[in-house]
Amino acid sequence: MRLINERTLVALGSVLLLSGCITHEETVYRDVDRNKIEFASDTAARIFYEALSKPPPGGTPTESKTEVDVPVVFHHKRKVVAGPNVRFNEAVVECDTDRDGKITEFEAKIFAERREKQ
């Protein structure tokens, strides 16, 4: 009886080792609705969008990765990518310093200057 159990274990181990591994890769794209914002003037809008179009040197991470490995048997990789509206919303929060829902030319200039210094 013990001989059968040992043979069974050896056979199962061989099957697992020779069968390769299970691999699962997933990319999830997450985006949100844009925050509603008004601009006090066309100049304020132009300054804001020009500053936004230039990514900061360090940048904000737009991806997060998760990997799980169990050698030989299982490999799972998941990548979450933030959509462009996330970056827009963060810029609006940073720019609209008085939180009134309207970006003035003065606020846009401060935002652009901060972006250049980063």
Description:
The chain has 118 residues and is an alpha/beta fold. It has one domain (21-117). It has 4 helices and 5 strands; from the N terminus they run αββαββαβα. It has helices spanning 2-18, 42-53, 84-95, 105-117, and strands at residues 22-30, 38-39, 63-70, 74-82, 102-103. The chain has a 3-stranded mixed β-sheet with strand order 1-4-3. A two-stranded parallel ribbon has the order 2-5. Strand 3 (63-70) and strand 4 (74-82) form a beta hairpin. Helix 2 runs parallel beside helix 4. The radius of gyration is 26 Å and the shape is rod-shaped.
Strand order of the largest sheet: 1-4-3
Rg for CA atoms? 26 Å
Number of strand segments: 5
Task: Give the rounded overall mean pLDDT.
Answer: 82
Low-confidence stretches: none
Structural class of the secondary structure composition? Answer: alpha/beta
Span of the ends, CA to CA: 72 Å
Strand content: 25-35%
Write the layout of secondary structure elements.
Layout: H1 2-18, E1 22-30, E2 38-39, H2 42-53, E3 63-70, E4 74-82, H3 84-95, E5 102-103, H4 105-117
Parallel strand pairs: 1-4, 2-5
Antiparallel strand pairs: 3-4
Helix pairs in contact: 2-4
